[in-house]
Amino acid sequence: MIVCVAVVGHQSFTEADDALKLHHIVHCSLDVVDERVNNPKKSGPTLNETFLGLLYPTENYKVYGYLTNTKVKFILVTTDLDVRDVDVRNFFRRFHAAYVDAVSNPFHVPGKKITSRTFAERVSNIVKSFGLSST
């Protein structure tokens, strides 16, 4: 189950009671993202890879990262400790598409919080469908 999705620098989406704890987890994951971006030889993904993979596990959560070509960072925090990379990649692909549609809106002010109801509904649907296989 996804407990938090963050667009770093812009906003986060969580309905959990421990939102402050999740914000701390997202903030801590940024060090790992910076390390992977600045030292690509030491870590797995190449510079062309947008999916950063598992950033770090905690006792109760797994934290995944994604970096767009415009350097916007997406962070996913899940309680599912047996999540497959394919599901996470698919989630980020769909989330990125929704994000691009939202920021491409001519009424959106760049750098400000996304207030689109359509975007919120798309994110909610993407989160609800996370991990559901088509087989």
3D structure, described in words:
Strand 3 and strand 4 form a beta hairpin. This protein has helices spanning 19-38, 85-103, 117-128; strands spanning 2-7, 11-13, 51-57, 62-67, 73-78. The chain starts with a strand and ends in a 7-residue tail after the last helix. It is built from three helices and five strands; from the N terminus they run E-E-H-E-E-E-H-H. Helix 2 (85-103) packs antiparallel against helix 3. A five-stranded antiparallel beta sheet has the order 2-1-5-4-3, sandwiched between helices. It has 135 residues and is an alpha+beta fold. Belongs to the TRAPP small subunits family. Sedlin subfamily. InterPro entries: Longin-like_dom_sf, Sedlin, TRAPPC2L. This is Trafficking protein particle complex subunit 2-like protein. It holds the Pfam family Sedlin_N. It comes from Linum tenue.
Describe the structure concisely for a colleague.
The chain is an alpha+beta fold.
Key phrases:
single chain; about 140 residues; alpha+beta; 5-stranded antiparallel beta sheet; 5 strands; about 20% strand; globular
Which helices and strands appear, and what pairs or packs with what?
Blueprint: E1 2-7, E2 11-13, H1 19-38, E3 51-57, E4 62-67, E5 73-78, H2 85-103, H3 117-128
Antiparallel strand pairs: 1-2, 1-5, 3-4, 4-5
Helix pairs in contact: 2-3
